[in-house]
Design a protein that fits this description.
Layout (H helix, E strand, L loop, with lengths): L16 H18 L3 H35 L5 H19 L1
């Protein structure tokens, strides 16, 4: 038998309403232990959103810069060269304004 093969497990039995209620109380107590008040929760959500947005913008900028640098290496290729020149002229005219 392979070491990473799935083990056979017993079929899952349905939980009782009391067990679901107990799990709900555990989840609620976990939530209150991490975020003691709503203000803290909203601060963390705002910070997470802002950092995610800034990270996305920086990542997209790096990817586009690398893509343009890669395209600049293909200046002498017949069909791609014209496209690269057009992109360069567009970028240069945008930075002059």
């Amino acid at each position: 038998m392979f070491p990473f093969s799935k083990k056979k497990t017993a079929p899952k039995k349905d939980k009782t309403p009391a067990e679901y209620e107990r799990m709900g109380r555990q989840i609620e107590s976990l939530y209150h232990s991490v975020y003691p008040d709503r203000l803290t929760f909203y601060k963390m959500a705002l910070l997470r959103g802002v950092l995610g947005g800034v990270g996305g913008v920086i990542g997209a900028t790096v990817v586009i810069a690398l893509l343009l640098w890669l395209l600049s290496l293909f200046d002498s290729v017949p069909f791609i060269g014209h496209f690269v020149d057009t992109v360069k002229n567009t970028i240069e005219s945008g930075t002059q304004n």
